[in-house]
Amino acid sequence: xxxxxxxxxxxxxxxxxxxxxxxxxxxxxxxxxxxxxxxxxxxxxxxxxxxxxxxxxxxxxxxxxxxxxxxxxxxxxxxxxxxxxxxxxxxxxxxxxxxxxxxxxxxxxxxxxxxxxxxxxxxxxxxxxxxxxxxxxxxxxxxxxxxxxxxxxxxxxxxxxxxxxxxxxxxxxxxxxxxxxxxxxxxxxxxxxxxxxxxxxxxxxxxxxxxxxxxxxxxxxxxxxxxxxxxxxxxxxxxxxxxxxxxxxxxxxxxxxxxx
Length: 260
Fold this sequence. Notes:
By secondary structure, the protein is of the alpha+beta class. The protein is built from 6 helices and 16 strands.
């Protein structure tokens, strides 16, 4: 039986999917956020309202951090909070793709303890609770155990394999990409890829849920310098993400030129 917080996240994610799927991409109001922060749609805001109503009604004492809500330093006074991306992959949503996701996590003392990544158009619900493993649609999932970095399949943008980021030649991995960062993390947890890397600073709402799902599936996760991911920071960002099995994670982290 899922933990109570995970049951709540699953319920909320499915409700969010129902709301988002009412919006046709070619008939949805879209505009750009200030300061080049990317696009947003009326669907993002409707999903955000739905999640806030469900989650904060059920847990009014939890803090709140969402991409589509104005941030407040009040969340820093909460040991436990929701970390939410109403639609991760908004550009994909606008394009009519089916790879966007809802990313929901409960974070306690800086670490996620319950998490859901849900792709409603694919009916794929990844879930995890601390110490209970990770699942896809209720079936347990686990990472791959490829040991050789040069034969690994990694999810990453091409830019991350520029020589300046690596000690010696960049590894000759097979590279793939998905636009939703939460989905990339879930795919590694599912064992469909060996690992994922992103060097760019990442918003907490993009990666908090994926972090727990990955770790409960057996992965090691860290920022690009090899330090554990920590959430509910004053500026809600982490310094990139590395995720893979222990052998590959160690190989990647040791070959990067970022300070450790």
